[in-house]
C-alpha cells in the first residue's frame, strides 16, 4: 500500500514538474525582450507620488494613442539606474541627480544610459518649518537664528537638542553634515521612508506643533499644508562635495529623464514620445494631488488631466 | 536561568539596582538554606562579579566605545566587489553559464504562470483552485475535503470582490514558484542533514544565519547579481523559506520510529530501500509541516520583494503607503492574509490526510478517485488555458467589486486620532511612547554606550556560560567582538537597547496573554484569528498607523516589533502550559492549591522549558523587525541596512546586516539553555 502511495506522489510530482516546465517553455519567448525592443516599454517608477503621476500620464498616452504596451515598475533611483544599464527598464522619467556615482559610471563611462532631456519640472529641496510657527517667530527664516529656537524643537528622540526630521535614505541630502558644519544645535533624525516622513509631518501639522524638516517641491502635500522655507547658505556648484565639508543649501534642480541607450537609439515612437515629454510642476502636482490627496487611481487621475490638457500633450506625439 | 533573566538583566545592568535578584527568583520555592548554597555557587559569584565590573567600569569609564585602532576596513573590499559585479555582470563566465540561467529560469517560470492564470481567466482559476483545494483535503465528501474546497472558493471570491484580483494572481504566481523551489531545496538539504551528522552540524549555523539575517541585507547583494525584479525577489525568498523545510525534514528523518527501521533492516532492506520505504514515509508528516512553514515564510518575503521591483500585492501595499493611503494598503494586506489562510489550510488538510492514510490505509477505490481528480485538474488547466478567455473576462468583473478602502481608511484615522493623544487620565499613546523613550530607551542606550566593551563582553560571556555551555559563551563573545571589529559598535548598542526593550515588552505581553489563553478556553478561541492576522499581515501595512500613534521614533519601531513577535510567544507559552503533566496538576488540585498556587507553583515551573523557547523565538522575531523599524525612525543598524538597499551601497548595508546577525546569534546563545536546542 505504501509503495503505491509513494508511486502516486511521484507521478503527481512529475505531472506538476511537467506543467511547470511547459509553462516555463511558453513564457520564455516574451521575457527575452528587455527595455530595448519597441513592443514593450518598462518605466522605472520611483516611490514618490510625483513619479507615479509622470508614469501614469505617459503610460496612458502611450497605450491609448500609440498602442504601445507599457509596464511601470516600482524602483527607486539607484535601482532604476542599474535597471536602465541592464535594459530591464527603458526609461526613468524623473531623476533628481541623487546618484551621481552611478550617473557618471553608466552615462559617461559605459554609455549604456543616455539623457532624455529635461522633464520640465523644477525640483527644489530645502529646510522648512510650518507657517503657523514662522508667523509667530518671523526671524527663524534665516539659518543663523535656528539655534535660538532649538529648544522649541526638542523631542524625546533628540534629547536636549532640536529635532531635525531628515529625509528618506534614497533622497539627495547632506543635512547631517550641514548641521555639524554650521554648528547647529540640532540632531538629525532620518525618516527611513518618504511615507513615514509625510505621516509624521501630517501628524505634527494637525497638532499645530513646531517642527523643522527636509522638504521639497514638487510634492503633492504642499497643496494641503503651508510651509515656509529657511534660508540656508547659498548653493554654488560643487559646494556640497565632499558631503563632509558641505556648508551650503541645495541646488534648484532641473529634473531630468534618462533612457536606456539601446531604447533611445532605436528611436521608436515610444522613445520619441518619451524624449519629448515635458510638463510643468503645476501639471504634475495636479495629477499627484488627485492620486494622493483625493485617493484617485493613477490611471483615472491621468485620464482626467489628459482630457483637460489636449493641447499640451499633442506636442509630445511623434510626427507621422 | 529563569525566563526573564536576559531581558531584565539587560534593563537593570546599566542602572544601579540589585542585579542578582532575578536570578534568585525561581529558586525561591526551595527551602531557605539554599540561599547560602547559592552564595557559594561559583556561577552566581561569577555573575555578581561580572555585573559589578559592568557597573563600576560604566560609572568610572564614561565611554565604552570599541577602540578605533582595532577595527578592520571592510568597506573598501565590499566597494571593489560592488564595482566588479557591475562591470562583469554581462561578461563573466559565472554569470553567463550559471547565474544568468538561474535568473532566466526564475523569470520565465513566474511569467509563464502569470500568463497561464491570465489565459485561464478568473472563472478558470477559481474553479481549478477550488478543485485543487478539495483534492488536497481528500477529494471525498468528508468534512475536511469540503471545508478545504470551500475555503479556497471563498478566498478567491473575496480577493475578487476586494478588487485585488490582478495583484493576487501575480503574488500567487510568484508564490507558486517560490514555494516549489524552496520545498525542493529544503527537501534536499533536509535529506542530507537527516542522514549525515556531519552535514547537519555544518548546516546548522548556515540556517541560523539565513533566518536571523534581515532579508533587506541580502536583497542587496542579490540585486547586484541578478538585477531588479523577479529573480532577486525569488532567490531571496527561497533563501529565507528553505531552512524550516530542511529543518523539519531532517527532524522527521531522525525521529522515525526505531522499531520500524529495525524491522525494515531485519527484513534485509538495503539502506536506500530503507530510506525510500520506511524513513521517508514516516517523516511525511513533519515534511508537510515544513512545507506549511515554508509557505508562510515565502508569503512574508514576497511582499518585501516588492521593494526591488517584483509585482503583486506587495507592490500595491508599497505604492499605497507612498500616498499615505492606509485603506488600500490594508485591503491588499487582507488579500495577503487570505492567501495565507488558503495555503495554510490546504497544506494542513493535505498533511492531515496523509497522516490519516498512513495509519488507516486507503481503499483502492479512493486511491483511484484521487488519481482521477488530479488528472481532471491537469485536464481542466489545459482546457481553460485554451478557451478560458473566451468564456469570461480575464480579470474579475469590475461590477462585482466592493470598495472597502475608504471605510478602512476612515476607521484607522479615527482610531489613531482617538487613542493617539488627549485621552483623559491615561494620556494616550503619544504620551506613553514619550515616557517609554525617556525613561526606558534613553537610559538603556546610554547605559550600553558607556559600558566599556570588555566589561560587556565579560557579562555576556558569564551569562552564556551560566545559561548554556562555555562554547555558547565563547560564540557570544566572538559575535560581540566581530561587531566591534567592523566598526559598528555604537550603532549596534543603539539597536541592542531597542531590541532589549522590545523583547521585554514582547515577553511580558506574550506570557500574560499566553497564560490567559491556556487557562480560559474562550480567550484562546478569540485570540486565534487575531494572532493569525498579526503574523501574516505584511508589516508594511501598520507602519503608517503606528506613526500616527506615537510619531516617527524608536517607539514606533518597537511597537511594530512587538506586534510581529507577540503571537509566537503567546502560542508557545499557551501550548507549554497546556501540556504540563496532567498528573502533577491533578495532584496540586487535590492538595487544595488555589488557582494562583497552581499557576505559580506547578504550571509555570514545569513549563519553564517551553517558556524559554518562547523567549528564544521572541529574540529572533524582534530582531527581524529591526530593519523594518529602520523605515520608521528606529535609526541605528536598521536604517543603515535600508539606506544600503535604497542607495545600492553594498559596503553600507551588508556590514550592518552582519552586525544584526551577530547580535542575533549572541542573544540566541545567551537565551538558550544547555542541553539541546529546543527550537524544532
Automatic annotation (TrEMBL), chain A:
Residues 40-307 form the ABC-type glycine betaine transport system substrate-binding domain. CDD domains: PBP2_BCP_2. The keyword Magnesium does not apply. GO terms for cellular component: ATP-binding cassette (ABC) transporter complex. Residues 1-24 form the signal peptide. Keywords: Signal. It comes from the Bacteria. GO terms for molecular function: transmembrane transporter activity. Transmembrane segments: none annotated. This is ABC transporter substrate-binding protein. It comes from Streptomyces bathyalis.
Automatic annotation (TrEMBL), chain B:
Belongs to the binding-protein-dependent transport system permease family. GO terms for molecular function: amine transmembrane transporter activity; carnitine transmembrane transporter activity. This is ABC transporter permease subunit. The keyword Cell membrane applies. The chain crosses the membrane at residues 44-66, 119-137, 149-166, 172-195, 216-239, 259-277, 289-308, 320-343, 372-392, 454-487, 499-520, 540-565, 618-638, 650-667. Its main location: membrane. It is found in: Cell membrane; Membrane. GO terms for biological process: choline transport; glycine betaine transport. Keywords: Cell membrane, Membrane, Transmembrane, Transmembrane helix, Transport. Gene3D superfamilies: MetI-like.
Amino acid at each position: 500500500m505504501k509503495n503505491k502511495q509513494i508511486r502516486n506522489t511521484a507521478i503527481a510530482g512529475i505531472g506538476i514538474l511537467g506543467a511547470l516546465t511547459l509553462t516555463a517553455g511558453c513564457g520564455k519567448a516574451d521575457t527575452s525582450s528587455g527595455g530595448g525592443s519597441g513592443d514593450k516599454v518598462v518605466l522605472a517608477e520611483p516611490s514618490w507620488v510625483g513619479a507615479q503621476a509622470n508614469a501614469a500620464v505617459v503610460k496612458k498616452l502611450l497605450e491609448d494613442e500609440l498602442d504601445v504596451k507599457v509596464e511601470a515598475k516600482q524602483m527607486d533611483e539607484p535601482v532604476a539606474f542599474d535597471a536602465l544599464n541592464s535594459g530591464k527598464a527603458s526609461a526613468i522619467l524623473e531623476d533628481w541627480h541623487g546618484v551621481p556615482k552611478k550617473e557618471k559610471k553608466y552615462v559617461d563611462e559605459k554609455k549604456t544610459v543616455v539623457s532624455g532631456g529635461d522633464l520640465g519640472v523644477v525640483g527644489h529641496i530645502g529646510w522648512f518649518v510650518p507657517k503657523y510657527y514662522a508667523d509667530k517667530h518671523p526671524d527663524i527664516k534665516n539659518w543663523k537664528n535656528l539655534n535660538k529656537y532649538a529648544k522649541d524643537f526638542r523631542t524625546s528622540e533628540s534629547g536636549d537638542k532640536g529635532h531635525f526630521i531628515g529625509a528618506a535614505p534614497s533622497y539627495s541630502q547632506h543635512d547631517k553634515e550641514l548641521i555639524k558644519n554650521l554648528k547647529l544645535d540640532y540632531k538629525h533624525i532620518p525618516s527611513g521612508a518618504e511615507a513615514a516622513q509625510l505621516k509624521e509631518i501630517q501628524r505634527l501639522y494637525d497638532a499645530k506643533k513646531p517642527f523643522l524638516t527636509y522638504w521639497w517641491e514638487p510634492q503633492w502635500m504642499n497643496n494641503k499644508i503651508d510651509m515656509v522655507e529657511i534660508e540656508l547658505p547659498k548653493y554654488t556648484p560643487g559646494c556640497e562635495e565632499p558631503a563632509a565639508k558641505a556648508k551650503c543649501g541645495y541646488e534648484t534642480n532641473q529634473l531630468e529623464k534618462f533612457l536606456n541607450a539601446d531604447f533611445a537609439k532605436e528611436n521608436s515612437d515610444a522613445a520619441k514620445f518619451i524624449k519629448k515629454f515635458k510638463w510643468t510642476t503645476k501639471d504634475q502636482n495636479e495629477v499627484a494631488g488627485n492620486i494622493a490627496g483625493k485617493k484617485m487611481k493613477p490611471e483615472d487621475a491621468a485620464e482626467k488631466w489628459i482630457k483637460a490638457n489636449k493641447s499640451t500633450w499633442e506636442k509630445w506625439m511623434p510626427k507621422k | 536561568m529563569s525566563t526573564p533573566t536576559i531581558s531584565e538583566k539587560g534593563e537593570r545592568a546599566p542602572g544601579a539596582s540589585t542585579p542578582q535578584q532575578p536570578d534568585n527568583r525561581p529558586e525561591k520555592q526551595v527551602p531557605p538554606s539554599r540561599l547560602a548554597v547559592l552564595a557559594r555557587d561559583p556561577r552566581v559569584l561569577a555573575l555578581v562579579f561580572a555585573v559589578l565590573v559592568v557597573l563600576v567600569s560604566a560609572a568610572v569609564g564614561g565611554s565604552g566605545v570599541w577602540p578605533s585602532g582595532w577595527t578592520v576596513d571592510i568597506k573598501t573590499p565590499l566597494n571593489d566587489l560592488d564595482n566588479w559585479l557591475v562591470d562583469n555582470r554581462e561578461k563573466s563566465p559565472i554569470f553567463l553559464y550559471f547565474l544568468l540561467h538561474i535568473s532566466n529560469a526564475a523569470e520565465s517560470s513566474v511569467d509563464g504562470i502569470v500568463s497561464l492564470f491570465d489565459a485561464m481567466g478568473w472563472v478558470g482559476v477559481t474553479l481549478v483552485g477550488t478543485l485543487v483545494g478539495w483534492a488536497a483535503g481528500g477529494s471525498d465528501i468528508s468534512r475536511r475535503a469540503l471545508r478545504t474546497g470551500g475555503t479556497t472558493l471563498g478566498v478567491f471570491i473575496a480577493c475578487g470582490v476586494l478588487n485585488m484580483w490582478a495583484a493576487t494572481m501575480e503574488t500567487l504566481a510568484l508564490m507558486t514558484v517560490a514555494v516549489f523551489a524552496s520545498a525542493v531545496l529544503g527537501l534536499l538539504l533536509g535529506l542530507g542533514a537527516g542522514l549525515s551528522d556531519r552535514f547537519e552540524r555544518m548546516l546548522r549555523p548556515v540556517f541560523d544565519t539565513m533566518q536571523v539575517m534581515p532579508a533587506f541585507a541580502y536583497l542587496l547583494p542579490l540585486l547586484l547579481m541578478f538585477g531588479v525584479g523577479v529573480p532577486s525577489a525569488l532567490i531571496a525568498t527561497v533563501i529565507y523559506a528553505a531552512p524550516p523545510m530542511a529543518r523539519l525534514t531532517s527532524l522527521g528523518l531522525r525521529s522515525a520510529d526505531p522499531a520500524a527501521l529495525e524491522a525494515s533492516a531485519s527484513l534485509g532492506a538495503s539502506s536506500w530501500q530503507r530510506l525510500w520505504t520506511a524513513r521517508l514515509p514516516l517523516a511525511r508528516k513533519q515534511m508537510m509541516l515544513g512545507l506549511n512553514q515554508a509557505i508562510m515564510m515565502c508569503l512574508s518575503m514576497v511582499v518585501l520583494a516588492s521593494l526591488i521591483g517584483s509585482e503583486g500585492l506587495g507592490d500595491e501595499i508599497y505604492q499605497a503607503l507612498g500616498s499615505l493611503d492606509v485603506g488600500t494598503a490594508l485591503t491588499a494586506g487582507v488579500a495577503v492574509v487570505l492567501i495565507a489562510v488558503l495555503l495554510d489550510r490546504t497544506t494542513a488538510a493535505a498533511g492531515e490526510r496523509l497522516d490519516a492514510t498512513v495509519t488507516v490505509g486507503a481503499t483502492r477505490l479512493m486511491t483511484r478517485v484521487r488519481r482521477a481528480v488530479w488528472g481532471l485538474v491537469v485536464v481542466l488547466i489545459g482546457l481553460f488555458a485554451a478557451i478560458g478567455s473566451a468564456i469570461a473576462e480575464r480579470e474579475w468583473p469590475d461590477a462585482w467589486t466592493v470598495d472597502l478602502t475608504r471605510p478602512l481608511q476612515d476607521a484607522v484615522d479615527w482610531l489613531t486620532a482617538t487613542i493617539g493623544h488627549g485621552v483623559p487620565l491615561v494620556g494616550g499613546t503619544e504620551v506613553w511612547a514619550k515616557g517609554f523613550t525617556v525613561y526606558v530607551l534613553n537610559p538603556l542606550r546610554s547605559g550600553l554606550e558607556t559600558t566599556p566593551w570588555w566589561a560587556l563582553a565579560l557579562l555576556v560571556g558569564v551569562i552564556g556560560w551560566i545559561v548554556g555551555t562555555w562554547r555558547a559563551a565563547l560564540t557570544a563573545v566572538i559575535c560581540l567582538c566581530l561587531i566591534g571589529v567592523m566598526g559598528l559598535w555604537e550603532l549596534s548598542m543603539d539597536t541592542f537597547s531597542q531590541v532589549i526593550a522590545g523583547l521585554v515588552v514582547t515577553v511580558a505581553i506574550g506570557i500574560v496573554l499566553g497564560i490567559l489563553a491556556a487557562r480560559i478556553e474562550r480567550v484562546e478561541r478569540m485570540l486565534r484569528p487575531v494572532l493569525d492576522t498579526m503574523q501574516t499581515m505584511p508589516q508594511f501595512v501598520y507602519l503608517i498607523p503606528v506613526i500616527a500613534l506615537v510619531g516617527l521614533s524608536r517607539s514606533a519601531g518597537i511597537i511594530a516589533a512587538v506586534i510581529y513577535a507577540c503571537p509566537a510567544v503567546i502560542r508557545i507559552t499557551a501550548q507549554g502550559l497546556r501540556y504540563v503533566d496532567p498528573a502533577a496538576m491533578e495532584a496540586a488540585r487535590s492538595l487544595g492549591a488555589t488557582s494562583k498556587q497552581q499557576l505559580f507553583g506547578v504550571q509555570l515551573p514545569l513549563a519553564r522549558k517551553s517558556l524559554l523557547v518562547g523567549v528564544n523565538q521572541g529574540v529572533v522575531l524582534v530582531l527581524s523587525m529591526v530593519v523594518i523599524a529602520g523605515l520608521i525612525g528606529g535609526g541605528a543598524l536598521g536604517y543603515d541596512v535600508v539606506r544600503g538597499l535604497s542607495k545600492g551601497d553594498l559596503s553600507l548595508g551588508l556590514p550592518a546586516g552582519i552586525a544584526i546577525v551577530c547580535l542575533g546569534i549572541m542573544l540566541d546563545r545567551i537565551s538558550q539553555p544547555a542541553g539541546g536546542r529546543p527550537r524544532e
